[in-house]
Design a protein that fits this description.
Helix content is about 80%, strand content about 0%. The protein is an all-alpha fold. It has a single domain, classed as MetI-like fold (Orthogonal Bundle), CATH 1.10.3720.10. Helix 7 (about 160-170) packs across helix 8 (about 175-215). It is flat. InterPro entries: MetI-like, MetI-like_sf. It is found in: Cell membrane. It is a multi-pass membrane protein.
Length: about 270
């Protein structure tokens, strides 16, 4: 028996073509911007605005030398540690607060007092308590990144349909099982949104603390090169921070797509 071939749906690959078009236009814009900066900085001739080609050479040299690579590793570990701590604590506390009105009423004023405190203002206290080092950097990043995770988890739990919870309880699920099997999956989109926001905040805080405390990392690398008036190397460090932020955002987005495949049209992985 011969089966007739199924015709492809018109426009089925249109989203893919649109994405490729956007990527090509973005790449073309970046190339044009780099060329414009190369010409503009050459005409300007300022030692404080080196051309992109000199920055690229400095970047390769510092990475090959190992100094920038070592600093980058320190920064990545600090961001990962702070974000991991903030995610674990934020999700757990957010789940508890979202599922208990009484607990939220008790802790609300403490949370509202702590949340507006700028994380950078707590760095001197953290240094007194923990000393200068990666522990202080991770603690500051975790504190700053905690709030978007906590509140996105809280509101994600509060938005869960009570009918779903009641239905789960009719099947004999305990409170902990309802949280794990029903509430957590339904709140996951909000939780991942909070983690995405927190990842950018963690990077900003890590770089800021490294700049302030000279405790290592890319922030200290940038500060050292600035004080030594090694301008291309300084800009190379700034470029590394930008690329790192972009890669972190891509990683979190990939995690969202992986975990929330059921929440997209078509449910494709």
């Amino acid at each position: 028996m011969t089966v007739a071939p199924v015709a492809a749906r018109p426009g089925a690959s249109a989203p893919g073509r649109r994405r490729r078009g956007v990527n090509l236009r973005g790449a073309a814009f970046v190339v044009a911007l780099v060329l414009a900066l190369e010409v503009g900085t050459a005409v300007l001739g300022s030692r404080f605005f080196p051309p992109p080609s000199r920055i690229a050479v400095a970047l390769v040299e510092q990475l090959a030398d190992g100094r920038l690579a070592s600093a980058l590793l320190e920064t990545v570990l600090s961001v990962a540690g702070g974000l991991a701590a903030a995610s674990v604590v934020g999700v757990l506390v957010g789940l508890l607060l979202g599922s208990s009105d009484r607990l939220y009423a008790v802790l609300r004023w403490v949370i509202e007092f702590l949340r507006p405190l700028p994380s950078v203002s707590l760095v001197p206290f953290a240094i007194l308590l923990l000393g200068v080092g990666p522990t202080t950097t991770i603690a500051a990043a975790a504190y700053a990144a905690l709030w978007p995770v906590l509140f996105n988890t809280y509101y994600g739990v509060r938005d869960v349909n009570p009918v779903a919870i009641d239905s789960a309880r009719t099947f004999g699920l305990t409170r902990a099982e309802v949280l794990r099997r029903v509430v957590l999956p339904l709140a996951l989109p909000g939780i991942l949104t909070g983690i995405r926001v927190a990842s950018a905040i963690a990077l900003v805080l890590v770089i800021t603390v490294e700049l302030l405390t000279a405790a290592g990392g890319v922030g200290y690398f940038i500060s050292f090169m600035q004080s030594a008036i090694r301008v291309p190397e300084m800009y190379a460090g700034v470029l590394v921070v930008g690329v790192l932020g972009y890669l972190i955002a891509l990683g979190v987005q990939a995690l969202e797509r992986r975990l929330l495949f059921w929440n997209r049209p078509g449910g494709d992985r």
